[in-house]
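Quick question: what would this complex look like in 3D?
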Amino acid sequence: MKSASVESAAASAPSDKNSASEDSAGENFELRSLQDRFSESSRFDADSDYLLHLYEQMLLIRRFEEKAGQLYGLGLIGGFCHLYIGQEAVAVGLQSALQEGKDSVITGYRDHGHMLAYGIDPKIIMAELTGRQAGISHGKGGSMHMFSTEHAFYGGHGIVGAQVSLGGGLAFGHKYRGDGGICLAYFGDGAANQGQVYETFNMASLWNLPIVFVVENNEYAMGTAVKRSSAETEFYRRGTAFRIPGMKVNGMDVLEVRQAAEVAFAHVREGNGPVLMELNTYRYRGHSMSDPAKYRTREEVQNMRENSDPIEGAKAELIKMGIDEEKLKDIDKRIRAQVAEAADFAESSPLPDASELYTDVLVESY
Amino acid sequence: MSEVESISRTPAGDTRDLTMIEAINEALDIMLERDPDVILLGEDIGYFGGVFRATAGLQEKHGKTRVFDTPISECGIIGVAVGMGAYGLRPVPEIQFADYIYPGLDQLVSEAARLRYRSAAEFIAPMTVRTPFGGGIFGGQTHSQSPEALFTHVAGLKTVVPSTPYDAKGLLIAAIEDNDPVIFFEPKRIYNGPFDGYYDQPTRPWKGHPDAHVPEGHYTVSLGQARIVRAGDALTVLAYGTMVHVAEAVCRQKAVDAEIIDLRTLVPLDIEAIEKSVRKTGRCLIVHEATRTSGFGAELSALVTERCFYHLEAPVERVTGFDTPYPHSLEWAYFPGPVRVGEGIDKLLSE
């Protein structure tokens, strides 16, 4: 019924893992092996067509988020709204390496970009932000809580770090059913200080689960800089105590992210257990819409925008590859139109009926 | 037997006398056999078979992939189970004592209970968290608590408390088959024998008790269906878990013609059975072991008052644990035993 490897993994993973090779029991096990492999060739070899494809995905996230910011300002989006601007290369670089229909993704509250990178229709995402019936969760989830069974996208979770252990369960499911899938579990540098993350590291490593833990280190846990909140600021090292190999990746370069994903995913798919990836990135906007970002200087943000922007970087590379600038302008125009259409849809769709208040609480009403 | 009771009993095979632990073990065994998506996980539940032996022999029979030990990480255990449920499995995590469930509260409240709603039913978290609760075994304040009201307060969770081996098996199977997260509180004082609150008398075994006759094979006791333990006209007693046995003993000794209702599930609650009974008797006693303030009895009292006010002959009465931590040495002073339950009945009948 179930594969024998799962059987042994669930119960006696530690000994199995240690006996895999002599080295693995030693000090170095595989802590650095992935980083070393990644260093050998740290950028994905993409032709101009493929880079253009990734560029378009990043640009869609950027324009979508800009529009969401506007709609928030107009009062059409209420409550909480966490924009992904600046971090686009992470979701696009990683998720472009997933096998759709096989793998699963779970993330925290900054989830718009992860959904868009999955190719989910911007209209129904925007309609969820405005709380409409046509939204992907019928307006019941809102910005932080969005799901898609079709894309095996398991949310969208508003409690910092809570999604990580769910990811452990998803990875268990992949392994138990033997479906060949892996789980990509995102969390931030802030969530990395939650205890349950480490409970999950332990279980995932103990049971050799197919999971990639991704720390999106954007340098600020809401308003607190990493160095003020974290004793170990090199997050990729934090799996060491659980024998989880780590990788440190420049999250502002989509091809570097993609290459790191190739290395990490292959390791996990081969049945070697979890990997911890730290993606160094930066968010240009506040933590949420109500955040004036007074904990950092304007110059710091400006410097990142001017020198490290993932979209501008890809654009420069595309032009160098011979892509016509006019073509890039047309793409931007098309994406702006697509986003404007999503916003119109999100504004004009009806709110959920009041009767929806009591639906989907339990299987049946009582 | 009442109408309510006769509907819910659908024996599937020959009956034998089982303890509550044996009944729970059998329910788990049957579900592991029937549904490959059922998975048991928890601290010491695999190789060791559980500290109360509820999972004894199940790893050996069903393998280490289906029944396995976890680290001591309650939040992680529940979190992983939510992910398993969302994926499509049907996990049955055990939290070794209900007192240990608090680290997992974040996952139960914010994830398990809410996944269905915020995904507009695209994702569900079917899972049954089994956990022994209640006092009577000198566990002191961290091995005796009854935290059920914390969970009935959370929209999106179901809360179940069996009081007999028959119900334990049928309710547990129903809980595992249910597509919502269920907190299944097992009254540990009555795992191995019914307990009527007379702590100074010899313990009795389940063997020979009418509710210990447990059919073989698969059957369910529907969630949301109370059991009329004893029909009567003088007053209605609402109880669950161990306290059902205490109430029964007191009414028998005092020869009070009480109608005792075993709620079986707190959410969903069989409010119709309660309403029907209180309208008939006009008096209502609520008994639970948990502390009094904001206990489930407060909710029951409000419901009875809202729905039966003009039928009441006396104010609703509660007999509960005190608003203190569960004491070690004064366990029997805390436990709402036969004396206090008897006083509650006297007070209600004197009005």
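Answer marked as accepted. Chain A touches chain B through 51 residues (CB under 8 Å).
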